[in-house]
What does this fold into?
Amino acid sequence: MAKSVHKPAPPRGGVPAVLRAALLLDVLAESPEPVSLADLATRLKLPKSTVHGLCATLVHTGFVTRFENGSFHLGLHIVDLAHAFLARTDLTVEFVRLWESLAVLPEETIILSVLDGADVVYVGCRNGRKPLALNFRIGMRLPATCTASGKAILSTLAPARVGELVRAAGLRSLTRKSVSKASRLEKQLEQARRLGYAIDDEETGDGMVCFGAPVFDARSGEAVAGVAVSLLKAGAGERRRELASRAIRKMAQELSRRLGARVGAKA
It folds into this structure.
């Protein structure tokens, strides 16, 4: 069943049509598949004629793509804006510069993520040469409790804050090995604090093991991001895992240093 969206009132002096267009884009962003005009109208609680007009305008500007069957999804202009935003963000710029200079694990996939509520959103990605269970991409959103980078970030938050996030979103599973109990998550986060990195052992994708470390800046004791490396579990013996965990901690420490953090104290 389609989930309707909450429609906040426009701010004083705001333009209702712009707000409706923004909500429409949010609906498309949340859907993995193209959405029909009827479904959009239902979820937005708007007349079909209004939604049709919004879609036609957004298609014309490149924000939305219309498929032959009449369904809609995000257009390529969204990608242009995302790239423009990321290009102006010190965090992502330094991430790219860092993997190029360090040449860390050149065949493996390395990602940079930030926390958004109880999710992590990938804002940087260097895909490796080896195929993985997931095709990581910028903009991908996953439960923080399932991912190595997410758990690395969560390990730096106050336990009460982690509890709030878990209660609000629940412990969502991506595989049969995803953490399903708060007590187990607490143990994983405690281990991450002790080791300096978090582990995702087939919790995001079958056959994958990932190692993630927190990234800090000069402003807070909480991580501002997490970096992680993903490996095929079949080829990740003890020596390979040790190399991966060391490399991702080194990358997190150097990225933190470039963001102004006192690396010896936190990273």
Summary: The chain has a mean pLDDT of 86. The first strand starts at residue 64 and ends at 66. The beta strands are 64-66, 72-74, 109-116, 119-126, 141-143, 198-201, 208-215, 225-232.
